Amino acid sequence: MVSRLGSVCLKAGKPCLHLTFVACNAPPVPLDDIVIEKTFTPERCDRMVKSGDFVRYHYIGMFPDGKKFDSSYDRGTTYNVFVGRKQLIAGMDKALVGMCVNERWMIKIPPQLAYGKDGYGDIIPPDSILHFDVLMLDIWNTEDKVQIKTYHKPESCVRTVQVSDYVRYHYNGTLLNGTLFDSSHTRLRTYDTYVGIGWLIAGMDQGLLGMCLGEKRIITMPPFLGYGENGDGSDIPGQASLVFDVILLDLHNPKDEITVEVQSLPDHCPRKSEVGDFVRYHYNGSLLDGTFFDSSYSRNRTYDTYIGKGYVIAGMDQGLLGVCVGERRRIVIPPHLAYGEEGTGTKIPGSAVLVFDVHIIDFHNPSDIVEITSVKPEKCIYNAKRGDFVKYHYNATLMDGTYIGSTQTFGKTYDVVLGAGQVVIGMEQGLIGMCVGEKRRLVIPPHLGYGERGVDGEVPGSAVLVFDVELVDLEEGLPEGYMFVWNSDVTPNLFSEMDKNKDAQVDTTEFSDYILQQVKEGKGRLAPGFDPQRIIQNMYDNQDRNKDGQITEDEFKLKADEAASHDEL
């Protein structure tokens, strides 16, 4: 028999429904009202069916003896209907109120609230009690709007999504009952689109507005803001509410320019980069969500390029203008000034905003000359010129202060003949005009230093060099083109004085001994800074015109007698 157990509340704080339950093993006798048996109740119930709601549910219709007369499962589609609008039999209209999504009820309806005395054709006999095994899948209302629930927001939110912005995001898309219908994660590719201009379903267009980079939110939308009555034709059924779990990874607007955030500046900045300069810099490159894609540090080599000439992406060309040596800045580049819609095909996806953390190591211009800063002594008697033999100390660094070398490491001066190609061109230019005791700072551009190749393991290619130089000693050189000069008038018996054994010819020993004796007595000078024996041998070879290893008086001539310039007497 039927026992009336009274009214029960389906959820604390909610209105109670008058329900009747069947006593155990009760015979199928006529019912006075609907009977509901809850066979499954989900842990969470965010929404219950109200009169006027539209629902999607599956059901199996049976008679009390268990014989099935209908099933939505057999048709492969849910039953979709408004509740409380007399589109259902009265008992079902009444029974569905209060159900939650994913809840399962066994609903027993007496004939007077079903098909009554008339039944339903050959399917349902008159005065039939009907049992419905119902699984609720979806609930929405025509008054519904997009619902947004943010469950993670970054501490800093500099910018939010606005109409016409272009976004890149990952999502999981489910129906209201949790059935997954799509995911960008499974494709390992973000969904990239404009927002608010009709490229998306209306609910997503609304749901993405106001998002911060890195924000995670749940966007729930009714079907009339999703795929409507027809669904998408495959995974999304008609009249389905949609739930998108979204994380925003990238955001820009086609009107965006680069943004530059200066993170540190040197105390002294005598010069800022301009179009046409050649820059050496280190960088870390990442996407807007922090995903790393490249670094010059990992290669242990700076990135070297001209700026403002199209050698790098347009945004970097702009971002490197106006920098100081030693400056650190963050350059954020929208995709239309970077790698565009295609990306690089590997680490940089299409339409990606790029973030470069840049450290400027040095820069120069191909038109640069040696920059000289000088501290002169009180007295400056003689200025170094080409041909002079100079001795100096130096400390050498790159523009960022990286140590290259110093004479202090080997405890003696560096000695060169100016104009002899014994040092880089910029150093020669920087030493010209120095006084003994003078100190100079020389900034040497690479085209006057070690060029594009640098010095393996010591000086990077295209590096600007900084030398702090002190001239310690100087020996005046000989006139250009001379390796030996007389300090006094030349004896008219020069050949006979050289010919010690009086055999009418001068050999190399006689020649060398004579020249060295003249130098020792102060009557002549050899060019300073060179190996005396090599100079003397060169002089002898020039005099030995027939190359027989002996000089005769006919061969012997002074330099003043020569039509052409030779390193000889």
From TrEMBL:
One of its GO terms (molecular function) is calcium ion binding. It catalyses: [protein]-peptidylproline (omega=180) = [protein]-peptidylproline (omega=0). Residues 486-521, 531-566 form the EF-hand domain. It is found in: Endoplasmic reticulum. It holds the Pfam family FKBP_C. Coiled coil: none annotated. InterPro entries: EF-hand-dom_pair (IPR011992), EF_Hand_1_Ca_BS (IPR018247), EF_hand_dom (IPR002048), FKBP-like_isomerase (IPR051989), PPIase_dom_sf (IPR046357), PPIase_FKBP_dom (IPR001179). It comes from the Eukaryota. Residues 52-140, 164-252, 276-364, 387-475 form the PPIase FKBP-type domain. GO terms for cellular component: endoplasmic reticulum. Keywords: Calcium, Endoplasmic reticulum, Glycoprotein, Isomerase, Metal-binding, Repeat, Rotamase, Signal. Its EC number is 5.2.1.8. The keyword Repeat applies. PPIases accelerate the folding of proteins during protein synthesis. This is peptidylprolyl isomerase.
